[in-house]
Design brief:
heterodimer, A: 224 residues, alpha/beta, Rossmann fold, seven-stranded mixed beta sheet, four-stranded antiparallel beta sheet, B: 401 residues, alpha+beta, 2 domains, nine-stranded mixed beta sheet, two-stranded antiparallel ribbon
């Protein structure tokens, strides 16, 4: 099992978006999570990625609990195995699109796992329509281009688990479709994906489709 | 990788870096300039004390200048007294050396010989001089010979100089003293009197009216006492004789001026400390602002797997670069502004200030860079630690970029 959330609760001062939640992610899983705004979908991804500490419960990656790892070990694990795309734009503003991609690959290599994408930077840029924008700083890109650049950076790292928080935000219909096709290809190549989306059509493409309700994941009306 | 990111963060986001660089440069400029002034004054004082061989000075009654001026700035006036004023007034058994000087004139900058500063022409007695003698290598000063102070840039040994209608040969350059000697040229006292007789009119040389003969005039006597004699006791004894001139103990004046300059140095030190403190506070505010804006980027770096210490290192490198650039700019400006600041101070205060050589200038700039790095470290540590220490999940939701 790649990643497992066991009886996980995440409580903030005035809200508990995740409560006694269980989720198992196998290699090659393609999971979609939908739900109302504020239901805790983004919190779920952050917990799975080890970027947020649960209030209760345990999260495992490759069988090892996050709680047993120190910050450095979690960082190494994240750089080597987890690709997270947030709802907000996250790129290093001083680096061009290509430099952002290479920087992320270098971080990945530093972790000791030389498993960066064999497709190469050229192919990644071409597939996401960024070849002509490779030397542009993020501030000179449109919202959609920035989103595609974020996807390119994550893809270039070639992680085992993709945590995708509304990856089609800011994208027009064409590029949204391209990104969803990329997700399908990634799944086909053996990667695990957790896709958070409001779009039911995109959610339908996943093998496992969950809704987040009352802090728990629900599959076809049944609680997991 | 992290080095490159830090460099690009500064070079490609100049707007974000500019404020920190400017604040650092201003703090370093003020601190280095004030420190250089303070050190220059102390050094000048020490050199003057070491090289001023006289213990006592006797100068004309109508000279309206302080002892300190005579000692250190050498602000010259065309005031004279008859050489015989000391006759029978000095207890010769206490005197090791005594020599007269004849101040001729101060020539303005560029009036002669392509010097870029004004300089004073002083006549010295080649037989008895003990003031300038230790600092040059000329055994006998001839009538046409000239010794030049350290700051008369273009007057090099062996060149000939046309001075007030007379040709002189520069025979040596005097070692730097930090005193008025550095801005002076020295010629034989008889030549100086001869030039005065040729060039001065009654308007600017009213001593003619008093019926005094030029050959008998001196500007001052400088006296070196035997080791066991107290200058203050000697001055008191001479005053008791009713000498028709002013007499002052150079050591007493030097001590008084030293006390005053020490007080000034303390004020300058306090001023420097205040500037550095204010600079640190201003920089702290800058870095709180900068790391706050970079919060999302810091969170992003954590989310792709950079360890806390890597992110800290990257942001800290960026701060060091900004600090280093600010320090370099501030240090260079301080060196460039030192001479105008010295000139300004010397217009309002009697100050011996030693000059800054090339090595000193480089050292000052390097000190500015080190100071900038230190205040950058102090000011940025807390904001960076706070920003880097946040949960990646929290960090990615904050900040502007």
């Amino acid at each position: 099992m790649l990643c497992r959330l066991q009886n996980v609760t995440k409580a903030y001062e005035d809200i508990t978006p995740i409560e006694d939640l269980d989720l198992s992610v196998e290699e090659q899983d393609y999971i979609s999570v939908s739900g109302e705004s504020g239901a805790g979908k983004s919190t779920l991804l952050l917990l799975a990625g080890g970027m947020l500490t649960p209030s209760r419960g345990e999260i495992f990656f490759d069988g090892r609990p996050y709680s047993a790892m120190n910050d450095n070990q979690i960082s190494v694990m994240r750089s080597a195995h987890i690709g997270y795309i947030s709802q907000s734009i996250q790129l290093l503003q001083a680096l061009t699109v290509e430099e952002n991609i290479r920087f992320a690959q270098q971080v990945c290599r530093r972790s000791g796992f030389a498993n960066t994408n064999p497709a190469g930077v050229e192919e990644i840029l071409a597939r996401l329509g960024l070849t002509e924008k490779r030397d542009h700083l993020p501030r000179y890109l449109s919202g959609g281009q920035k989103r595609r650049a974020m996807i390119a950076v994550t893809w270039a790292r070639n992680p085992r688990l993709y945590l995708l928080d509304e990856p089609t935000n800011d994208l027009d219909e064409y590029w949204a479709e391209q990104v969803m096709e990329l997700c399908t290809d990634l799944h086909a190549s053996g990667k695990a994906l957790i896709l958070v989306t409001h779009n039911p059509q995109y959610a339908q493409r996943a093998e496992k489709r969950y809704r987040l309700q009352g802090g728990k994941l629900v599959e076809d009306g049944r609680a997991l | 990788m992290l080095w490159k990111l830090a460099i690009l963060n500064v070079s490609r986001r100049k707007g974000a870096a500019a404020n920190a660089v400017i604040v650092t440069a201003i703090a370093v400029l003020a601190a280095v300039l004030v420190s250089l002034l303070s050190m220059g004054i102390r050094s000048g004082l020490a050199i003057s004390a070491m090289r001023m061989g006289a213990d006592v000075i006797i100068y004309p009654k109508d000279a309206e200048i302080s002892d300190a001026e005579f000692l250190y700035s050498g602000i010259p006036q065309m005031v004279y007294m008859d050489a015989s004023v000391i006759d029978g007034k000095l207890p010769q058994q206490y005197i090791e050396h005594i020599t007269p000087q004849f101040f001729l004139k101060t020539l303005p900058a560029a009036s002669c010989c392509a010097t870029d500063e004004e300089f004073r022409i002083v006549g010295i007695d080649k037989e008895s001089d003990f003031i300038v003698a230790p600092w040059h290598n000329v055994e006998m000063l001839h009538a046409e010979d000239m010794l030049v102070g350290a700051h008369n840039g273009s007057l090099r040994p062996n060149i000939k100089v046309l001075l007030l209608g007379n040709t002189f040969k520069v025979v040596d350059k005097i070692a730097e003293t930090g005193s008025a000697i550095d801005q002076s040229v020295f010629i034989d006292i008889d030549e100086a009197r001869k030039i005065a007789a040729e060039r001065f009119t009654q308007d600017d040389f009213h001593y003619f009216e008093k019926g005094q003969h030029l050959d008998n005039l001196v500007t001052c006597y400088l006296i070196k006492l035997n080791d066991q004699i107290s200058p203050d006791d000697f001055v008191a004894a001479v005053k008791d004789t009713g000498i028709d001139a002013q007499i002052a103990s150079i050591s007493a004046a030097r001590s008084q001026l030293s006390d005053e300059l020490n007080d000034l140095a303390k004020i300058l030190f306090a001023f420097t400390a205040a500037i550095i403190l204010l600079g640190c506070l201003a920089l702290y505010a800058q870095y709180v602002n900068l790391t706050g804006k970079m919060q999302r980027e810091i969170g992003y770096m954590r989310s792709v797997g950079l360890r806390k210490r890597d992110v800290f290192f990257s942001v800290f490198l960026q701060v060091c670069l900004m600090g280093g650039i600010g320090g370099l700019i501030g240090g260079v400006l301080a060196v460039l502004l030192l001479n105008p600041a010295v000139r300004f101070l010397q217009e309002v205060l009697v100050l011996p200030v030693s000059r800054l050589g090339f090595g000193g200038a480089v050292l000052a700039v390097l000190s500015g860079v080190v100071l900038a790095l230190l205040i950058s470290l102090v000011s940025s540590l807390a904001p960076i630690v706070r920003s880097v220490g946040k949960d990646p999940a929290k960090a990615v939701t904050e900040g502007e970029y």
